[in-house]
Amino acid sequence: MIVGAGIAGVSAAEALRKASPQAEIVLLSKESHLPYYRLNLTRYLAGQVEADQLDLHPQDWYTEQNIDLLLDAEIRTLDLAKKMLTLRDDSNMLMTN
Ligand SMILES: Cc1cc2nc3c(=O)[nH]c(=O)nc-3n(C[C@H](O)[C@H](O)[C@H](O)COP(=O)(O)OP(=O)(O)OC[C@H]3O[C@@H](n4cnc5c(N)ncnc54)[C@H](O)[C@@H]3O)c2cc1C
Question: Which pTM was predicted?
Answer without folding.
Answer: 0.92
